Amino acid sequence: MPLPTLTHSFRALRHRNFRLFLGGQIISLAGTWMQQVALSWLVYRLTRSPFLLGLVGFAGQLPSLLLAPFAGVWADRGNRRRIVIATQALAMVQALLLAALVLSGRATVGHLLALSVFLGLVNGVDIPTRQAFLVQMVTGREDLANAIALNSSVFNAARLVGPALAGVMIGMVGEGMVFLLNGLSYVAVIAALYAMTLGPHARTPAVDEPMGRRLAAGFRYAFGFAPIRALLLLVGVVSLMGVPFTVLLPVFATDVLGGGAHTLGFLMAASGVGALAGALYLAGRTSVRGLGYVIMAAVALFGASLIGFGLSRGAWLSMAALLGAGFGMMVQMASSNTILQTIVDDDKRGRVMSLYSMAFMGMVPFGSLLAGSLASRIGAPRTVMLGGVACLLAAAAFARALPGLRAQVRPIYVRLGIVPEVPV
Question: pLDDT tens across 173-185, in order?
Answer without folding.
Answer: 888 999 999 999 8
